[in-house]
Amino acid sequence: MDIQFLGATGEVTGSCHLLTVGGRRVLLDCGLFQGGREDEARNLAPFPFDPASLDAVVLSHAHIDHSGRLPLLIKHGFKGPVYTHHASRDLCSVMLRDAAFIHEKEVEWVNRKRERKGLKPLEPVYTRADAQRAMRSFEGLAYGEVQEILPGIQLRLCDAGHILGSAIVELRLRERGRESVLVFSGDLGQPGADILHDPSQVAAADMLLLESTYGDRLHRSREDTLAEMHEVLDLALGGRGNVLIPAFAVGRTQELLHLFGEFFKQWGLARWQIFLDSPLAIEATGIYLKHSELFDAKARAMFARDRKIPVLPNLHLTRTPAQSMALNRIHSGAIIIAGSGMCTGGRIKQHLKHNVWRRDCHVVIVGYQAHGTLGRQLVDGARYIRLWGETIQVNARIHTLGGFSAHADQRALTDWLEPIRVPGEPVRGGQRPQVVLVHGEPEAQRVLAAHLRARQGVEPHIAARGECLPLPSRPITH
Ligand SMILES: [Zn+2]
Ligand SMILES: [Zn+2]
């Protein structure tokens, strides 16, 4: 029994781990690398294994840095099932198609240039047809349901509270008289966040793969974050500009709309026109509503009453490119929520081009910005950015609201880890699981590892790219 780390090692994107048990091979996540050009080039590199040799895939959640290479895996010969939560399957059906569309568009653009240079055209990473084909492999599970996916491999998904359908993956493994429990945290939500439940607590593991996105940080409290948002909106209202909010289409967008509904009066939102300028986010919002049984009690009550997210009289859903382009002519009074969340693509780039050079405009960053992305450049205070070969001065005010994170912060990560023991061991004084940190940048991982060592006496291992670790196991006792 072993596990090899093939992505999200010392970085937050490209989640992908290969589990081998009794000759069976299961891939945990198959995510896209995101960030700068170098990161994205890795998406085109061949998989470091033969996709046809895999028996199954388990997908923690629908975010593209976890699911985005699945169509490619299938295109290259994977024929088995992809196990994931029902809601993740629904989300993937729109997200993978959207990712494919972006690949197709990008390649089209590159190919026009290549053609002029007399070069051979490139192929998109995968097409919408590939994405659609991939969906046939998906098998949806409910939280808590135990399924024997292969001989000796039992799977259970638990609510990770990160986005709709997000799961903590628990695998009970047996091989030659020994057993092991492998828990993969997936992306863990921040307790107390809106709409979804808090991450469920897992009791036992022999090995635990723990995400570490915010391993070095504590999020601002919800109250402070809401006050900050209120402040930014007040400030923006005093000027004559627009407010741009780059937001992940799945998760953050629904949370923002939910808050806009809740604080419509307090935040003076009646004086704005709010645009949800993302066909993907509009579709994803529909999927959230379809699965409102997964909401926490407060959100459930709100949606049971309204049956839509939320009642915003001035919310405009802009679906077509023409509707989106029309926003370029609005110079003030618009709040534009658009993707992509890290400004690496999508309609937000167009809005940045038309707004970021204007002093009266505001950009509100409400999500994680990976190293190498345009969003990260803005957060880091870039004076100029490049968009479609054009240099654009950054004069707009950039506000970073860290408290909106969909990821657990250092305290939430350590609190979640604290009670977990090796199966059969008592909570008090019992043996701790082997902890392996994934899905975090090196500094976050270093700080989290030091913190866990000092506070809990566990010695986390930081996964390195390509590294393979044996799974700790126990003799089967029953
Ligand atoms: Zn995620
Ligand atoms: Zn992630």
Task: Tell me the overall shape.
Answer: globular
The CATH architecture of the largest domain can be given as: 4-Layer Sandwich
CATH classification class of the largest domain: Alpha Beta
Instruction: Spell out the CATH superfamily of the largest domain.
Output: Ribonuclease Z/Hydroxyacylglutathione hydrolase-like
Number of strands: 23
Which compounds are bound in this model? Answer: zinc ion
* CATH domain fold name of the largest domain: Metallo-beta-lactamase, Chain A
Gap from first CA to last CA: 19 Å
Main β-sheet description: 8 strands, mixed
Radius of gyration using CA atoms only: 22 Å
Count of DSSP-assigned helices: 14
What fraction, in percent, of the residue positions are helical? 25-40%
Strand content: 15-25%
Give the count of structural domains. Answer: 2
List keywords for this structure.
alpha/beta, Metallo-beta-lactamase, Chain A, 2 domains, 23 strands, binds zinc ion
Structural overview:
There is one protein chain. The protein is of the alpha/beta class. The chain folds into 2 domains: 2-217 and 406-475, Metallo-beta-lactamase, Chain A (4-Layer Sandwich), CATH 3.60.15; 222-404, Rossmann fold (3-Layer(aba) Sandwich), CATH 3.40.50. The protein is 31% helix and 22% strand. The chain is built from 14 helices and 23 strands. The strands form 4 sheets. Strands 7, 8, 9, 10, 11, 20, 21 and 23 form an 8-stranded mixed β-sheet that branches. A 7-stranded mixed β-sheet has the order 6-5-4-3-2-1-22. It has a 6-stranded parallel β-sheet with strand order 14-13-15-12-16-19, sandwiched between helices. It binds zinc ion (2 copies). Residues 12, 15, 63, 65-66, 187, 439 line the site of one zinc ion (ZN).
